[in-house]
Structures are given as structure tokens and as C-alpha cells.
């Protein structure tokens, strides 16, 4: 019979939640600063996009690798190593003397994505089962807190003191959090030492890097360019070889016993949810910042401030979703999330130009649905695998979340570009014409995102319930 320290669990929950807060704060405050970074280093917009691309690639690989290493050598040990590297990277980024050094620092910073699967795994492994959904909800809510802090505070600091100052503010926070985790978080009790599958890691990295690079650079390089087509081919070949290797080797990089009906369902659903969320986020950013009458003409900082209510809703709803999940079950909460998301998105599409606060109200409803989905899916996943495999399972979940987030901007951008209209301004030298997305473009993107949310009902229906009062089959615990 497992014994749990409830006081320890409540004491550590804010620490693990702060991991999500730190990463979201650091990333969200970077976005408004990209034009200034571009100007300082005298680079093109295509060059500047590498600041985001290299972080995404590094983070995707590290989430899978360090998740598995956490199962093998201890999740706290891996989390501590990553956080030390993250402190170094954040500091390094703030003082980067050149664009090349900045990219190197951002690649190291990408290790921060591996904090999420390790934090979620530690909660499931060390907390009393009835506390896990609420704790997972609190950690999920910290994503919203990070955005709430970063958008106004990061925007103000960048505007008045420069983009480097935003990183200087993150360094002491990261250092203090790292010290606290090293000192107060206990090591996971379940470890499964095995041989490190170097070939499997290499094949996985080849597959992920080539795919993400092709998706990220396709709009700039051309979808039918030799570089992009070669990357897609390399990714497909690597994927086939990787699967064959994993099915035949004795110690696969991703243990074969990780995959079951619920893990596959939760991973597929989180891919779809991440896609839909990222697609609509880009959609709304354009709508807020395009000039009237085709948008609301907001600045980047104003856009961030108007996004605070939806982010604040996450803080309130996520822990409540976790609390009710133990009674209602993860699948019901997920289905409720789909209902809220579909209603919020479709009402937003119908009232795009009915006023900012009307639009924000409906967007907040959609964010509530997103929160229900995120909290329910991570619990559906973590309650469906043995605790000695949690790192690998949550790592793969993060990988597919990143894939969904990477694909969405390309699709949304294509729609916004192809369904556009022209506006002009009168100047002493004559009218100046430029292209802006039409109302039809925004509605199409929202409809696509809505369809994706509805598609999550399929994996949700296929999954077996593991929480709730009506669950007859006890949750399997490792010996």
C-alpha cells in the first residue's frame, strides 16, 4: 500500500506550478520584443524567426529525451539538471553579444519544455491520487498566470528598458526556483534503469527536427522547394526507421508498454487541441491589431492587456476542473471542454466586430473549454500508465502538443493571406494600398479550429475512464 505525505504535496504544488509560470513568462515576454531584436542585430524577419524555431526544435526533442531519462534516473534529478541549464540559458540570452550566440542560448533555453512532463510526472507519482487532478489543474493554471504577468509587465519593461532587461528580470526568478526545487522536492521513488537507446534518440531527433524545420520554414522557403521537400522526405524515412528500430530493440527509447488506448487517445487529442488553440491565437492577434474597419487597431501591449480576462479564467477554472474530475471523470470534463470551446469560438465568429468586450467575453468562454480539455487530458494520460513510465508518456504528450502548435500558424497564415482585401490611406503623394485579412478569413480560421475541437470527441469517446465515482476498475499501481 502506497503512503503519501499530504502536507508535502500541498507544499510542493506551488513550486511545480511555478515551473510553468516561469517558462510561460519568459516566452510570452519575448514575443513583443522580436522587432527590436531584429533591429539590434540587423537581421531579416526570416532570420528573426529562428529565435522561435530553434527553441521549438530543442524543446520538442528535450521533452521526449528527458522524460525518458527521468524514468531511468529520477525525475527530480533530471528536473534539477534542466533548471540549472535554463538559468544559464536565460542569463546568456540577456547578454548575447551576437545573433549566433543568441540562437545558441535559445537552443539551450528550449530544454525548459522538458520541465512540464517531469513536473506532471512528479505530481502523479508522489501525490495522493485524489489530490492529483486538483494539483494538475493548479499547474495548468500557472500557464495563464505566466501570460498575465508577462504581457503587461514584459511589454512595459521591453518598451522602457529594452528587451534584454526582460531576461534580466527572469534570471533571479529562475535561480530562486531552481534552488527551491533542489532543496525541497523529493526524488521520485519509481525508477527503471536501462540502457540508453542512442540510436533511437538519434532517429527520433532526425524525424522531429526535419519535420518541424519543414513546417516552420515552408512559408519562407516555399512548400515545393528542394529544401522543404527534402526535409519532409528525411522526416518520413527517419520515422519509418525509428518505428522499426523501436519495435525490435531490447531497450527502446520509448518503452513499448507506454502505449495503450488511453495514452494514444490523450496524445492525439492534445495534438488537436494545441493546433486549434494556436490557430485561433494567431487569428485573434491579427484581428486585434489590424486597422479599423478590418480590425481593432490595438498596439501589441494593448492586445496583451485585453487578453488578460481569458488568461485569468484559466487560473480560476483549472483547479476547479481538477476538483470535479475526481467525481465526474476525465472524459466528462473533456466533453464539457469541447462544448464550451465550440460555443465560445462560434459566438466569437458571429460577433467579431460587435465590440472588444463582447468579443473578449466569448473568447473567455472558449478559454474555459480549453482549460477543461487540457486538465482532463493530462489526467487521463497520467492515470493510464504505470508510474515508472510517466516521464516517457508525458514527454511524448508534450512532443505532439508541440507538433500541433507548429502546424497551426502555417495554416492560419495561409488562410489570412489567401482571403484578404485591400485598404488604402490617402497621403500627399497619393493613396497607399496594402493587404489585410478579410472578415471571411477570420471566420474560416475559427471554423477550422471549431472542427478540430469537435474532432477530439472521437479519441475522448475511445478512451477508457480512469477517474470518477462510476469507475469500477481500480487504477493499476506499480508494485
From TrEMBL:
It holds the Pfam family MFS_1. It is a multi-pass membrane protein. InterPro entries: MFS, MFS_dom, MFS_trans_sf. Signal peptide: none annotated. The chain crosses the membrane at residues 12-30, 50-69, 78-97, 103-123, 135-159, 165-185, 197-216, 228-247, 259-277, 297-321, 333-353, 359-382, 403-425, 441-462. One of its GO terms (molecular function) is transmembrane transporter activity. It comes from the Archaea. Residues 12-467 form the Major facilitator superfamily (MFS) profile domain. CDD domains: MFS_MMR_MDR_like. GO terms for cellular component: plasma membrane. It is found in: Membrane. The keyword Lipoprotein does not apply. Keywords: Membrane, Transmembrane, Transmembrane helix. This is Antibiotic resistance (Efflux) protein, conjectural.
Amino acid at each position: 500500500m502506497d503512503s503519501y505525505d499530504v502536507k508535502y504535496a500541498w507544499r510542493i504544488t506551488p513550486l511545480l506550478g511555478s515551473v510553468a509560470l516561469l517558462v510561460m513568462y519568459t516566452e510570452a515576454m519575448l514575443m513583443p520584443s522580436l522587432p527590436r531584436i531584429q533591429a539590434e542585430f540587423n537581421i531579416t524577419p526570416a532570420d528573426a524567426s529562428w529565435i522561435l524555431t530553434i527553441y521549438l526544435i530543442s524543446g520538442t526533442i528535450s521533452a521526449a529525451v528527458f522524460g525518458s531519462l527521468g524514468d531511468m534516473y529520477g525525475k527530480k534529478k533530471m528536473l534539477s539538471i534542466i533548471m540549472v541549464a535554463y538559468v544559464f540559458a536565460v542569463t546568456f540570452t540577456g547578454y548575447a553579444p551576437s545573433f549566433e550566440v543568441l540562437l545558441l542560448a535559445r537552443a539551450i533555453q528550449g530544454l525548459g519544455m522538458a520541465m512540464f512532463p517531469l513536473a506532471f510526472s512528479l505530481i502523479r507519482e508522489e501525490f495522493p491520487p485524489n489530490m492529483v487532478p486538483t494539483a494538475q489543474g493548479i499547474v495548468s493554471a500557472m500557464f495563464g498566470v505566466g501570460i498575465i504577468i508577462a504581457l503587461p509587465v514584459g511589454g512595459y519593461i521591453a518598451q522602457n528598458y529594452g528587451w534584454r532587461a526582460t531576461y534580466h528580470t527572469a534570471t533571479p526568478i529562475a535561480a530562486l526556483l531552481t534552488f527551491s526545487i533542489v532543496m525541497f522536492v523529493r526524488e521520485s521513488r519509481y525508477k527503471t534503469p536501462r540502457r540508453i537507446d542512442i540510436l533511437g534518440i538519434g532517429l527520433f531527433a532526425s524525424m522531429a527536427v526535419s519535420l518541424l524545420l519543414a513546417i516552420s520554414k515552408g512559408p519562407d522557403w516555399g512548400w515545393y522547394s528542394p529544401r522543404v521537400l527534402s526535409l519532409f522526405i528525411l522526416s518520413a524515412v527517419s520515422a519509418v526507421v525509428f518505428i522499426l528500430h523501436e519495435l525490435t530493440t531490447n531497450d527502446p527509447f520509448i518503452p513499448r508498454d507506454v502505449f495503450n488506448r488511453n495514452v494514444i487517445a490523450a496524445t492525439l487529442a492534445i495534438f488537436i487541441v494545441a493546433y486549434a488553440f494556436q490557430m485561433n491565437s494567431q487569428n485573434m492577434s491579427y484581428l486585434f491589431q489590424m486597422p479599423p474597419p478590418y480590425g481593432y487597431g490595438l498596439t501589441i501591449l494593448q492586445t496583451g492587456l485585453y487578453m488578460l480576462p481569458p488568461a485569468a479564467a484559466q487560473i480560476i477554472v483549472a483547479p476547479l476542473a481538477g476538483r470535479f474530475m475526481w467525481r465526474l471523470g476525465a472524459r466528462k470534463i473533456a466533453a464539457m471542454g469541447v462544448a464550451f470551446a465550440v460555443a465560445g469560438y462560434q459566438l466569437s465568429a458571429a460577433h467579431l466586430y460587435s465590440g472588444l468586450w463582447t468579443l473578449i467575453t466569448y473568447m473567455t468562454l472558449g478559454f474555459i473549454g480549453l482549460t477543461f480539455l487540457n486538465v482532463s487530458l493530462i489526467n487521463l494520460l497520467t492515470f493510464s500508465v504505470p508510474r515508472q513510465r510517466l516521464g516517457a508518456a508525458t514527454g511524448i504528450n508534450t512532443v505532439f502538443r508541440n507538433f500541433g502548435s507548429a502546424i497551426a500558424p502555417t495554416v492560419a497564415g495561409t488562410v489570412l493571406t489567401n482571403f484578404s482585401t485591400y485598404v488604402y490611406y490617402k497621403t500627399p503623394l497619393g493613396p497607399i494600398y496594402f493587404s489585410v485579412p478579410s472578415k471571411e478569413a477570420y471566420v474560416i480560421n475559427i471554423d477550422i479550429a471549431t472542427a478540430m475541437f469537435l474532432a477530439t470527441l472521437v479519441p475522448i469517446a475511445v478512451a477508457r475512464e480512469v477517474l470518477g465515482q462510476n469507475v469500477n476498475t481500480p487504477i493499476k499501481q506499480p508494485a
